[in-house]
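All the exercises in this workshop are built on plain-text protein records. An example says more than a description, so a record of this kind follows:
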Amino acid sequence: MSKEILLVAEAVSNEKDVPKQVIFEAVETALASAAKRRFEEDVKIRVSIDQRTGDYNTFRQWNIVADEDYSYPDSELTIDDSVEQNLGLAIGEIYEEEIPSEEFGRIAAQTAKQVIVQKVREAERAKVVARYSEKVGKLVHGQVKKVTRDSLIVDLGENAEAALPKDQLINREMFRMNDRIRALLSEIREDGRGPQLVLSRNVPEFMIELFKLEVPEIAEEVIEIRGASRDPGLRAKIAVKTNDRRIDPIGACVGMRGARVQAVSNEMNGERVDIVLWDDNPAQLVINAMAPAEVDSIVIDEDAHSMDVAVKSDNLAQAIGRNGQNVRLATSLTGWALNVMTSEEAQSKQQEESQKLIDVFVNSLDIDDDLALQLVDEGFETLEEVAYVPMEEMLDIDGFDEDLVNELRSRAKESLLNQALQAEEKLDDAKPAEDLLTMEGMDSHLALVFASKGIITMEDLAEQSVDELLEIEGITEERAASLILTARAPWFAESE
């Protein structure tokens, strides 16, 4: 039988292109399984095959454990047993005793076949994963092998299969068996059946890879893709930038008579693609991304990372797009939250905001509306700016002299000081409850701040949302969530 084992290992290894070691391990497992059938108890068996001669030996094993951990007499020995029998083994080591080996007969061969098939499948999957791990995020080609309710099974060749979930198809796409297909390898997913290649056709990266395929300048890194967004099957935007001023990036991506962009569009089921010129200036990038709509003006809010985009009223529908498509794609492409409005609405909003600032300056600095309006027109938005902007900048304002600037700065600082004193008084008057003060994760200052906002007890805190706490200066999202969870702990205790 020893020669037969060698012949089996040689034949299967050559046929399935897997290492002989995998086959020998499968046969050892099968022989061990056959040997265990001789015992009624749940024993541990190990088989060792000499890969040169095919001879094999069988061993029964016992784990050496501490006395208190002794639970399985059929496969464990205590450390005291080891000492009594002079085994010379420590806890964690294994004692082996050779027993008669099973013949490599029909039952053992059948078991070996099943184990070998499983091992071969695992080895083949491992080879596929190794071959495709570097292709994640790249295009792959294949043929539809099977269509199920949830996905398409795509044959990539060389024993490699991938799943293309139907929610990763482009809208209204239909594929049948044996159709050729191109998709992006989005991930290698681990599941109960082993690693699985997962494809996608509706992610922006799919379009990017198609452009790399159709536009040599992109592959050569003369043109750079800086961003992309898609409404799969309907419309997409892609932002490009040239590293060579002699080359027009938009023209290169469009191609002669639109051939290049048309090839990409055809592969994406007729999806319309807008090619946008990238600009490092966020405002100019948004103007480019809003095309074909023309932008009249933009107001940037750095703190909120948003922009108010104003267009002419007869251009509003085009700027927003069907079901908000154009502004949604532009938002995704640029990374800025875009609020599209008419020029009249933008002007009205700006006037309202300006009036609020004027009122603040009039009341806090005790000046007239004209002077307050002049400060707003010069870009002053806070009392801190009036108090601490360099003297030279304020003297550059038409009609401002040193005496006026000093007076304005003095009044601004006095107003800020009064506001700080009022805030402190409010904190002093606020008295947080004992349960809030002693709550885990709370400190006395923060408890006072909460109390000044009307959050007096743990129950008050428990009823807050994370967004509401983020309005308090110095509170991070993580800490807000943690404090609310701690405050709500009594709720869960009562429900139990």
Residues 139 and 184 are 4 Å apart (CA to CA). The chain has 21 helices and 15 strands. The longest strand covers residues 180-191. The longest helix spans residues 402-429.
